[in-house]
Specification:
The complex is a heterotrimer. Chain A contains 18 helices and 34 strands. Chain A has 5 domains: 3-125, 3-Layer(aba) Sandwich (Rossmann fold), CATH 3.40.50; 141-233 and 316-331 and 498-565, FAD/NAD(P)-binding domain (3-Layer(bba) Sandwich), CATH 3.50.50.60; 247-304, no CATH class; 333-496, 3-Layer(bba) Sandwich (FAD/NAD(P)-binding domain), CATH 3.50.50.60; 577-635, Alpha-Beta Plaits. In chain A, helix 5 (107-125) runs antiparallel to helix 18 (640-651), helix 6 (149-160) crosses helix 7 (191-204) and helix 12 packs parallel to helix 13 (439-448). Chain A has a 5-stranded parallel sheet with strand order 10-7-6-18-29. Chain A has a 5-stranded parallel sheet with strand order 20-27-21-22-23. In chain A, strands 2-1-3-4 form a 4-stranded parallel sheet, with helices on both faces. Helix content of chain A is 28%, strand content 25%. In chain A, helix 13 (439-448) links the parallel strand 22 (424-429) and strand 23. Chain B has helices at 18-30, 46-52, 54-70, 81-95, 97-107, 120-128, 130-135, 158-161, 171-178, 197-200, 202-218, 229-237, 239-246, 257-264, 289-299, and strands at 3-7, 33-37, 75-78, 116-119, 145-148, 182-183, 223-226, 254-256. In chain B, helix 2 crosses helix 3, helix 6 (120-128) packs across helix 9 and helix 11 (202-218) crosses helix 13. Chain B starts with a strand and ends with a helix. The longest helix of chain B is centred in the N-terminal third of the chain and has 17 residues, at 54-70. Chain B has a 4-stranded parallel sheet with strand order 2-1-3-4. A 4-stranded parallel sheet of chain B has the order 6-5-7-8, with helices on both faces. The radius of gyration of chain B is 19 Å and the shape is globular. By secondary structure, chain C is mostly helical. Chain C has 12 helices and no strands. The longest helix of chain C has 24 residues, at 173-196. Chain C is globular, with a radius of gyration of 20 Å. The termini of chain C are close together. The chains are: A alpha/beta, B alpha/beta, C mainly alpha. Chains B and C meet through helix 2, helix 3, helix 5, helix 10 and helix 11 of B and helix 7, helix 8, helix 9, helix 10 and helix 12 of C.
Chain lengths: 652, 300, 213
Amino acid sequence: MRIGVFVCQCGTNIASTVETEAVAREALQHPDVVYATSYMYTCSEPGQQQIQRAIQEENLQGVVVAACSPRMHEPTFRRAVEKAGLNRFMFEMANIREHVSWISNDRQANTRKAAELVHMAVAKLRFNHPLSPSRVAINKRVLVIGGGVAGIQAALDCAEGGLEVVLVERQPSIGGKMAKLDKTFPTIDCSSCILGPKMVDVAQKENIRLYACSEVESVAGYIGNFSVQIRRKATCVDWNLCTGCGLCMEKCPAKKVPDHFNEDLGNTRAIGIPFPQAIPKKATIDKEHCRQFTRGKCGVCKKICPVGAIDYEMEDEFISEDFGAIIVATGFDLFDHSSYGEYGGGRFPDVISGLQYERILSASGPFGGHIQRPSDGRQPRNIVFIACVGSRDASVDRPYCSGVCCMYIAKQAILTRDHLPDSNCYVFYMDIRSPGKNYDEFVRRAQEEYGVNYIRGRVGKIYPKNNHLIVQGADTLLGAQVEVEADLVVLATGVEASAGARELAEKLRISYDQYGFYMESHPKLRPVETNTAGVYLAGVCQGPKDIPSSVAQGSAAAAKVQALFSRDTIETSPQVALVNERACVACGKCIQVCPFGAIQWKELRGGIQKAEVLPSVCQGCGLCNATCPPKAVQLQHCTDNQILAEIDVLCA
Amino acid sequence: MKRRIAYYQGCSLEGLAIEYDTSTRAVCEALDVELVEIPDWSCCGSTPAHSHDALLSAVLAGRNLAIAESTGCELAMTPCPGCLKSLKGALQAFHNQSERDVFLEILAMPFTGHIKAISILQLLYEIIGVDEISRRVIRPLNDLVLAPYYGCLLSRPAQFAEFDDPENPISMDELLVGAGAKLVDFPYKTECCGATYGVTRNQIVARLTGRILDMAAGLGAQAIVVACPLCQQNLDLRQSQVNRYWKRRFDIPVVYITQLLGLALGLEPEQLAWDKLFVEPDWPLTAPAVERDHLEKAQS
Amino acid sequence: MERIHTLAIQQTCDIGFISKVEEASGQHISKCYQCGNCTASCAYTHVYDYPVNQIMRLVQLGQKKAVLQSRSIWLCATCQACTTRCPNNLDVARIMETLRIMSRQENMVAERDIELFYHEFLESIKAFGRVFETGLLPMFSLKAGKPFTDMDLAPRVLKKGKLAFLPQRIKGRKQVAAIFHRFEAHQLKRTEELRQAGLTQPVEGDSHPDECE
């Protein structure tokens, strides 16, 4: 084999701590290496041309590039060698940037390590074989998980492009957190007025199938061919029959059921539709509070339902669907402020969360849009807002900024002053983060036009005194302790990963950060892709963001799916396991360890059993290769021989 | 079987807080706890020592734990949260690899660090338990309305105190409710009383304790219940100074948790040194006797 | 407190001071993002010259003299409210205590009588092994020039029989005194080691005479 080695300087990224020329010189000593050089930017156009020229002129059969991580540029170089006529698997990459130059300043040691990594790559390359990918058909159906505004946008955009969409929502209605908001910043337009039509669109589009009250149970397969099991939770109401008339809700005798849609500020019934604009407009029974379930007798709704839709015996149902791509838009939860003992730890009824206040402001909320205290229904005169509760707070393990609270408290303060012109609003803040379009102007308006008092400092303690709440804080600009006698305190509770986010990530085989937010493939350049091909992200499940950004990401994810589905087939990687039938002893260990079910029995003539890999299912993890006692299963492009060759030169 | 626990009294409990010592001993006796006074104990150094140097503070307190270990007890209990802080500081210094050698060198006594330091509240609440104590109540504190006041150190900082809640402690609340008392929801449970500034800056103490007394009075408390000799001294002994500072006439007894529990357990006021309080309760200490008579009759 | 007017940040920043505070307190001072929660929670803000968050800020800027000469560090009662509520898990009370110790070592104490009280307290322990309350108060009052401290309380305390007229001299008082001596010897040795290693600052702490006007 005639091998060429190209050592990249990456500007000064590598060259400042690695002697690239020396690495190239040493490479020439290795067997089969006929050409070696060092260049400033190997990934650049001239850098790639240099490789291609050398392939032609030196008649190279294999190429090693020592540069950055293969995650960065392996596809670039594979394309380059392919253009010059080589098979893309006759290429190896040595990572001398992330693994060498960036982690140490010891020039001598770095040069040594870089040379060794190049040596290993050369040793492996000598055992490489040309491999060719096969193609499989793409199933052009898309699954959207989560029916908040991001998921709705993604589903609508996909449907608009003619794709078949399945939207799975955990709650009885789509709409997510946005459906609970009163108005939206910075335009103060009514949240349900702008979201409502989109929700109706979802219900009306013929190519969107909505599974509400449902969750993803399991995911198998790969890009282009996912197979997903969905659990449709028992609603105890046959939605094919239910007309959404609401009679059951009116007559249900269980009247003290906490109203989750209203953030537990009021009560609802054990059967019903969560809110008037709900999609689907179907009733659901809350088994935890339904007397039929808690006491074993009642049956009022069953008697009253004009269409006979009530079915107490209903059980969860499982359905399987196939998709070519998945968009994850599972949203977020609100930080639970009960861990703030200094703010009452949830004991004071008039210390409420931002979302609770949103419901209070809403005309469809528990108090019909009249601002009043949850404790006694009195109209508050002095309202205090506290920023960064469960955000930027390492002591409760939430060191990140939730990104929306500065804006939503400015909005809530403006609305408060609008509703109650005689009221006083005080906002305790640390910094104001308002980098969106027209956002900072909005916060200025809260102060200049609406007379909201902004106080720069945190609040140390809230306690009740004479039917008020004493808010004890600091004004750090003044260098003083300050006290406000408040009637109502709104905590700008932050954003956290939605409950169950980690479990869903495991099912989808996507990664998440330490707080449970899903990891995008690249923080700047691949913001809606995940590291699992065919799985895309939209909305707050990826990290805190506001409505415009969530919607933009929903559309972006839909565009990614459209691009993927614009082809009919997709290349599958040839880096899969292969069974050498002559060596296979049919012990079945590989079948047991394969996490993807990609290995099965195959019967040869005479009834002899052998293991067989399904290349379209195999993910190339190599577990079978490591497990196989006679080493009959070999992962292509990572065979035992190739790995041993690398180890040999390292230990020589 | 009787529990044996090493007892670190601390200097305050020899003087201005003598009733805390008397009532602690009496209550422990009634609860079958044998307090083994640490022989020839010395001062823990208190705030002056740890404001001087953490190491000096650790060793001064460490001497007492070293002696306590020689009594064979596994726990050392002190009623004073200030002393507790010093004792725990000694253990912290000992268990810190970089400090241990110099700590032992200056201490110059055998010390294994196996002993644990706890407060009287920890003993009552965690080791004996509310259930056990309420079971032994023979003279419930019926109708008495109390403000439980923990002060700053008993549960703070959380990682150091390892006891109760730093913002809303409840151990004393539960003990008192278990003894039949009614409680006000006291928002100043952990506010600082002015600490050691009684002597050097008594206006600070007057200001801070004034707020606490005002809150307790406003909520209709008949007494403030404390578990710290310094809190008690600032609220009780200095109540006259507070009244002068605020031009008020506070007259709220400030009593130790052990004194109240002692009454509930059937001990006599004299056994609990009730007469040592400066602001004397205007409610009867031994009422209602009915239940007790009833109980005695039942026993005979 | 001397009012800081224009502060020449580069010239007055004592980097060595910042690292000394960090080492002695075990706290990473740059974690403080000036939210003010310590000040909001502090029961002593009303008597401070600089509120706690400004003390933290002054330490971040290496303003040794302003910090060590401040009254605040001596009026802090270590009540732990700041430490309990710091969103960045800083032990603020520990930093205040560290500064208190440093201000005494550097002879920059602003509240002399509080230091004197602590001193007399420790002297009492050194002499008797325990604190002799009856002796401590008059000694302090005399030396502090405040002869009438708590005179109003004396008759009532005596009436209750709460104060002893003679100190409790414990048997181990020599043992306690020896602890003080070994501690002082250790301090001297350590200072000497630091001096030889060239690590100590000028004792008078006046390395930046222009920092406050």
